[in-house]
Specification:
Mean pLDDT: 88
Strand content: 25-35%
Distance between the termini: 56 Å
Helix content: under 10%
Shape: flat
Number of helices: 1
Length: 80
């Protein structure tokens, strides 16, 4: 059986990164970030497997002062 209307190939999106805003650290103004992880411990009582689990949550931290941008924390379960 053939498909009556195959989807046409999609053209790649052309982005001009010169037009994009560069994110900088609000604490020190640095513009380079490194990958970092918060680790969350999930109790066996609420874990879907019934076993305690460690869940990594990837974020980016300032490469200079280590600050994690607040926008990465909001809604992630990492708020205090």
């Amino acid at each position: 059986m053939s498909h009556p209307n195959p989807a046409p190939p999609k053209a790649p999106v052309q982005l001009d990164l010169n037009e994009a805003d560069t994110i900088t650290c609000k604490e020190c103004g640095n513009a380079s970030f490194i990958q970092s992880f918060f680790l969350k411990r999930i109790s066996a009582l609420v874990s879907p497997t019934g076993k305690e689990a460690i869940v990594p949550i990837q974020v980016f931290a300032c490469g200079n002062c280590g600050t994690v941008p607040q926008k990465m924390i909001e809604g992630s379960g990492l708020e205090k």
